[in-house]
Amino acid sequence: MNPWDLIMNNAPALAIAIPLLGAFVTPLINRAGRKAMLVWVIAVLAFTEFIALLLVYQVNTYGIQVYVFGANPHTLTVPPDSGGIPVRIIFTIDGMSAFTALISATLGLVVGIYSVGSEKFQTAQEKFFALLLLLVVGMMGMALTGDIFNFFVFLEINSLAAAALVSYHLNKGKAVEAAFKYAVVSSIGALMILFAIAILYGEYDALNMAMIAQRMYQTGFSTYDMIAMTLILVTLAMKCGAVPMHYWVPDGYGEAPGGTSAILVVASQASLYGLFRMSFTVFGLSANTSSLGWFMIILGLLSMFIGVTMAFLQHDIKRLMAYHAVSQTGYMLLGVGVGLATLGTAAFNQYGLYAMEGGIFHIINHALYKGLLFLTAGAIIYRVGTSDLNKMGGLAHSMKFTAVFFLIGAFAIAGIPPFNGFASKLMIYESVYQLNPFLAIVAAIVSMLTLASFLKVFHSAFLGPKIYDVKEVPKSMLFAMSILAFFIILFGIFPNIAIHYLVAPAAHALANPLGYITKVLGGGA
Amino acid sequence: MNPLVPTITTPSGVWNPLVWLMVFLLSLIIALIIYMRGEKTRKKGMQAGVFFSGDRPPEGMDAHIAAHNIGWGFMEALRPYYRAMRKMHTGIINDYVGWFLGILAVMLIIFLFWGGA
Amino acid sequence: MIFNLPFITVIIVMFFGFYAMVFRRNLIKVVIGLDLVESAVNLFLVSLGYVKGGVAPIYTSAPSTHMVLPTPQALTLTSIVIGVATTAMLLSFCMVIYKHYGTLDTRKVRRLEE
Questions:
Q1: Is B11 an 8 Å CB contact of chain A?
Q2: ipTM
Q3: Mean pLDDT across chain A, nearest whole number?
């Protein structure tokens, strides 16, 4: 078998194996010098990105992909002697999984490149990059796995790596405090998910998502399912930072070093993916999707409004952006929640699917522009040495590129055309108002407040007289920012590129749980 | 659907970024033309003092409006709301866990009644 | 099993854990609460997998075909390993916090509060 076929056939396994191996080899390679370690890390991240692109290509060309670990051939989901149960760990990749994996890998690569410059003078860099790779493993695993216990394991990898990354700069203990809070909240949430997995396992004798969904559909929705569903959905809502369980978000994002806040955004989005996967694929067939949808819509509205108003109050640049991350997560919950609330009715085809596409498009847009904003914030802190907006001013005199990138990100998050934030927000506004006009009104007001709040940041950090005599940040940081800025403008002017190749397949995959189940259980060799 | 066509059709409208960009550029050009037709004899460097009633403009940090002054009116108008919000965001880890468990309990009760199909 | 005793124990231990996490004002005690919840979940997993009179699933020398499915035990082992990692990390965070703040009182460990 030639290497290309080997990669093509084993892409889902490689997406996990390469960064995982890379993470543990990084400290060893660091013995050969810092340069070798950096080349290694960037190469691993670039290869992961390539695999993620390959997964998107495969899903778009051949439909849902399954990969069974330890089976020969690797598509043998239900072995003939197993009694109809998928006994092995199965990775199931549909449009939504590939979409999330691509975002995780992309932001991982960008933050990796950025950190080459921004962490230049730190000690123990090999541990930083090892943790970064582990975080990518956690996100990729959550996105690709079709096994509910495996999902828990990757969720824990994700949480632990993220918490350790947050505490990387000790910063007089403040970062450790943030990491402690993040780790406690994540761990209690993961334990609740494990409890729910135990309930589901006890009831259905299976850990495979498709198998659980099918058996739940056959036997009807019981009280145990209800308990498990609540535990899983509330936990994942907490992990993606929905109000009123968002308190760890500003702490964690605000204290994370340099550009790592950007990848923490994507780490939360992996939980958001989990929330959508569970509510559509696992519980969507049996549970009352209308009340699940309204659960998401209400969380979304609260997140949007409270997030943006709390952001107004902040004077720490990263904390402010973290509250905006909470607020933007609300848009995604709102868009997909409207889709879920209308699932199975005539309204779904009129506007529900469209709202879902808007919500999912907003995920990638948010990853891009919030990533860019956090990178610019990291650049400011790198040069100025403080994150307090009250002490900043006049940075546009000396950091011209950073200022331009910040403006691009700020315009995108505020939904100003022609940047990408406008395209997805428009899709959300114009579809959710058909369910209830109030939803679109709140979304529009929040968008205005977002603009006002970023004007405040831009004015206080970049405008005004020259206070700090600083240089522009290193080239690797600027390069990382320019990648994200390029995609923001590209998706703003040609939104159909993203919608056609990434968003629409993801929305259709979520809306079609039966296809997922049939692929896993009915396919065979 | 051709991915290179920038038009997206929503349930109630159409959005084409290229058309928007063209209109935007056109309006910029019109604004530039109007600006060029303005008074040619104005002197540079004299106008700034007007805003300070003829005083010398402040320099350095004094000329800069710091972040906490921006949006003061908004926060003053919503003071009761912000007081409640500040009370909610305590920063104590026990409260973080408490909120999570509280929402868990509330949602258990809600889904018990409306969760099933 | 008598009165589903293991499951009742699970609920009791879990509520002790929750109580410690919500009402105890010491970071170490919060971690202990987390560990109690974890033990409860592990106990739940193990007791789910219990088969009366079952034997270990080793096919070569099994005296009967009444075997225990090893999956819950495998899950519990994984969960214990993850729990050890989490606890170690949280306790080391506690040490660093104590070094910098001089206290472990949750009401005082809130310099980030806004």
A1: yes
A2: 0.94
A3: 90
